[in-house]
Amino acid sequence: MSERPDFEFRTSSTCKYNNNDPRCVEVATNVPGKVAVRHSATGLTVEFTAVEWTDFLTGAKLGEFDLSA
Q1: For all residues of the chain together, what is the average pLDDT?
Q2: Residue 16 — very low, low, confident or very high, per pLDDT cuts 50/70/90?
Q3: Of 52, 48, 4, 3, which is closest to residue 28 (Cα–Cα)?
Q4: 46 half-sphere exposure, CB direction, 13 A CA radius
Q5: Domain tally for the chain?
Q6: 57: domain range?
Q7: Which residues does the UniProt record annotate as the domain DUF397 (predicted)?
Q8: For 29-48, b where at least 16 C-beta lie within 10 A, e where not — what string?
Q9: Is residue 38 part of a domain?
């Protein structure tokens, strides 16, 4: 059985966390080849490969996930 890596999460400086509306996400990139994203209130975590994360960020910057009206 493999050990789960110790992720070091950080929250965006633009996140305005408040106890009445805890909607921040946290990202960890300290484990080589992996990226973890965690919901700050629930602690639920999703892991990606570094390639998956890079592809996601590229798509987001290109507007691939923009909602149309």
Answers
A1: 86
A2: confident
A3: 48
A4: 6
A5: 1
A6: 10-61
A7: 9-61
A8: eeeeebbbbbeeeeeeeebb
A9: yes
Residue 18 located in a structural domain: yes
Residue type, 33: G
Query: Per-residue pLDDT tens for 29-48?
Result: 999 999 999 988 888 999 99
pLDDT at 64: 93
Q: Does some domain include residue 68?
A: no
What is the arithmetic mean of pLDDT over 7-11?
93
Q: Is residue 30 part of a domain?
A: yes
DSSP structure string for the chain: -PPPP----EE-TT----TTS---EEEE--STTEEEEEETTT--EEEEEHHHHHHHHHHHHTTTTPPP-
